[in-house]
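Running this now, will post back.
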Amino acid sequence: MEARTTTLPRQLLVTVDGNTNIANVTRAIRMLRGVTDIKTAKRKPRLYDPETGEYLNNKTMKAIEDVRSGKDQGTTYESFEEFKKAMSAL
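Update: finished.
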């Protein structure tokens, strides 16, 4: 009787263009031999700055999400002079 060795499953991460139909890609990958499971990752949306052409960093995104969700009330100022004074103190 031959001893069978078991191998650990390997993972392959596939990134596709945002306009790609995920269902079609999933269907095609399932046809490949050896595929045991397919999961679709859910990404949080990122804000894009059209002036710089870059996405906002994680710290900025967290600050925005905290204010939107009500975890942080943000900072408000009574007047522009108050704002200017606070920014000068930094």
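The chain has one domain: 22-88. More later if anyone needs it.
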